[in-house]
């Protein structure tokens, strides 16, 4: 019951921030559910919930999606997801927590601290590279958004279209990560109660509703900073717990 309450609260918070800022559910739910459900099952649940949440959001923002960039980035995510899945198979729970925390903190550090130093580019290869790395980080830690954000900053991608395009990309990254981990035997959901799904979906609908209200009183930039701050705290917690368990 405690796990279900946690999932509901995390999904409400994450999906409401994602409704405003473009990303938030994976950033917040990834490290928190990794701590309480274990890094393998926690990230697997995040992959599916983030995929469903992004699919619902895509319907509302589809007119702003850059479908060309979506196709190029989304088509190569599997190339990063496969090595991520095999890495999961070879790691203990403690090392997985360390990996989840490290990957998340590294990605967020680039976004928050080094963004002013990212050189401008309009080339195709950085776009596709962000898809490969995003597939890897999403499979390992349940987050693809920060990596793609680095490319978006380099390409000077208009934020409204970038935030909209992230949604179908989250659908692809979540689906690819789930499929690859299932097919390689890196993870499964056999020990997960079915109640997580209706509870999570209920949290999504409430979060999207609250996010719509929140968008009227908080700027996109503030919501984005709040999501990043919560993700940093979660990443540090996962890293610390993993290190103490070694």
Automatic annotation (TrEMBL):
Pfam families: TauE (PF01925). It is found in: Cell membrane. Keywords: Cell membrane, Membrane, Transmembrane, Transmembrane helix, Transport. It is a multi-pass membrane protein. One of its GO terms (cellular component) is plasma membrane. InterPro entries: TM_pro_TauE-like (IPR002781), TSUP (IPR052017). The chain crosses the membrane at residues 28-50, 70-88, 94-114, 126-152, 194-214, 226-244. PANTHER family: MEMBRANE TRANSPORTER PROTEIN, TRANSMEMBRANE PROTEIN YFCA. Belongs to the 4-toluene sulfonate uptake permease (TSUP) (TC 2.A.102) family. This is Probable membrane transporter protein.
């Amino acid at each position: 019951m405690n796990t279900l309450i946690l999932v509901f609260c995390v999904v409400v918070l994450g999906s409401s921030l994602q409704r405003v800022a473009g990303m938030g559910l994976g950033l917040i739910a990834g490290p928190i559910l990794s701590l309480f459900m274990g890094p393998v099952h926690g990230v697997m649940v995040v992959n599916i919930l983030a995929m469903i949440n992004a699919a619902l959001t895509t319907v509302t923002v589809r007119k702003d999606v850059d479908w060309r960039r979506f196709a190029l980035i989304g088509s190569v995510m599997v190339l990063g997801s496969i090595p991520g899945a095999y890495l999961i198979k070879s790691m203990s729970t403690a090392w997985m927590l360390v990996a989840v925390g490290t990957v998340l903190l590294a990605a967020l550090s680039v976004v928050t601290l080094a963004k002013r130093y990212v050189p401008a580019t309009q080339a195709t290869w950085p776009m596709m590279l962000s898809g490969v790395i995003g597939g890897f980080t999403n499979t390992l830690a349940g987050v693809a958004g920060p990596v793609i954000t680095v490319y978006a900053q380099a390409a000077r991608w208009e934020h409204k279209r970038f935030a909209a395009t992230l949604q179908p990309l989250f659908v692809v990254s979540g689906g690819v990560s789930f499929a690859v981990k299932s097919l390689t035997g890196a993870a499964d959901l056999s020990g997960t109660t079915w109640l997580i799904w209706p509870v999570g979906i209920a949290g999504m609908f409430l979060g999207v509703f609250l996010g719509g209200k929140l968008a009227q009183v908080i700027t996109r930039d503030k919501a984005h900073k709040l999501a990043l701050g919560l993700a940093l705290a979660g990443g540090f917690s996962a890293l610390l717990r993993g290190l103490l368990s070694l």
